[in-house]
Amino acid sequence: MTSPLRTSSIGLLTGGDPPPVGLHNGEASSPFLIICDHAGNAVPAALAGLGLPQSELDRHIGVDIGILGVSKGLSDHLQAPLIFQRYSRLVAECNRRLDSPSFMTPISDGTLVPANQDPAADDRQARIREIVEPYHAEISGRIDHRLAAGLPLILVSMHSFTPSLRAAPAPRPWHIGLCYHHNRHFSDLVLDELAHQRDLVIGRNEPYGVNMAEDYSVPVHGEERRLPYVEFEIRQDLIADASGQAAWAERLAPVLSAAHARLAMESGR
């Protein structure tokens, strides 16, 4: 089955489609740079909803439920720039390398994605060129600018996870998980601060870790640049509404600030 993408001389996105890159507090000067790969579930009009009903796009397979609200709140508390992706991970998975099987996944948690069964090469390239590349270019550009100016930078990657998968129905008890690979020092500082909050069940590389072979954002923008980073996964039932999102932003902001203070003290900055 081929993709329903309608190619044209003006490309995939048209005037009625939102731009892929969202910014919040874009002029803020905090050392934190917050990114949110799965903030939205938009689909370009030319892709006809990927052949899915809206109810599927609204599931965790289409968007990291609740995480944009948390990210915006955290951005406000820290006065840190937030970069977020508006298009669904089912259109193009911005946190996967281009050769990953799940970059344009044909099936997600038991749901067949009709437009991703056998996409034509130009369909795939249009999604990369117009959705994925502008998002990562914005992140790279901001990192380059701060580093060139000799300014400190800590990458904060925001995600959420479903309490249970349809394909593997088992409870996931963690309230929050941290994902890290070799460059884990800042994550360890954050874990130390979170440990003071006795009501939390904290996952360490649970329910996910960092897959250096397939993941993109933390491996490329964090690990490969040797930047301090933390990647959060928050359980979606805790942030499904505005009050939960606000509460988690308020919870994480002082944790990040305290971890940053310790890191700055270590480095003498």
TrEMBL record:
Source organism of this protein record: Labrys okinawensis
InterPro entries: N-FG_amidohydro, UCP029730
Protein's name in the database: N-formylglutamate amidohydrolase
Key words of the record: Hydrolase
Pfam family, one: FGase
Presence of the UniProt keyword DNA-binding in the record: no
GO molecular-function term, one example from the UniProt record: hydrolase activity
